[in-house]
UniProtKB/TrEMBL annotation:
The lineage of its organism: Bacteria, Bacillati, Bacillota, Bacilli, Bacillales. Catalyzes the formation of N(7)-methylguanine at position 46 (m7G46) in tRNA. This is tRNA (guanine-N(7)-)-methyltransferase. Gene3D superfamilies: Vaccinia Virus protein VP39. S-adenosyl-L-methionine binds at residues 44, 69, 96, 118. Its EC number is 2.1.1.33.
Amino acid sequence: MRLRNKPWAEDYIHNHSHIVELNPYERKGQWQELFDHQQPLALEIGTGKGRFIDGMARQHPEMNFIGIERDKNVIVSAIEKLNDPEVHNAQLIHENAKDLRDMFGENEVDYLYLNFSDPWPKTRHEKRRLTYYTFLEQYQNVLKDDGTIIMKTDNRQLFEYSLVSFSQFGMTLQEVSLDLHATDDGTNIMTEYEEKFSEKGQVIYRCKASFTN
Ligand code: SAM
């Protein structure tokens, strides 16, 4: 996603502190305080322009959502979508998710979504893939014991790599779909990338995995 630099983005982010938590490291262990109701917490890493978190927050008022996005030029679109008085259960973080353990307490998160993560196809960039084992170590720490990782991608190589990475880490695969849209019951919320790729006829893969049986 190459976007033109938006010089106003930093100010825009700071002016929307009711949607973007500006001190996420100080919020560790206390994210539920930001929401009207204490209810299951879902985290999306690499939220992009926010279509998924916005749609999920509206579809699931019984859950709370947090989206992490490091690109200021992109997160502003997510802020625009969530800047709606009807949405009470979604917050954003403008940060790199590499230090997740410093932002979330142990067992603070119920669901972790990885949507169309950057594939980093070169072997020398393996460590940057969001399903590399060092990321899984962090997810294990912040997720509840029965928490779930839900991953969607159009990229077959990243999907296969991630299935292997989850398995090698000792995780349990709960669901593997090789064509999500063929079996969608109408509840799937599409991301911006998902819409773009599926319009081109590409298959969408999804898997769900947990750290316990
Ligand atoms: N999830 C969105 C979608 O499906 O439309 C965006 C997908 S885009 C390929 C990946 C996004 O993840 C980019 O916006 C990028 O800035 C963000 N991202 C990648 N690595 C990240 C990290 N370590 N922390 C936070 N955001 C990250």
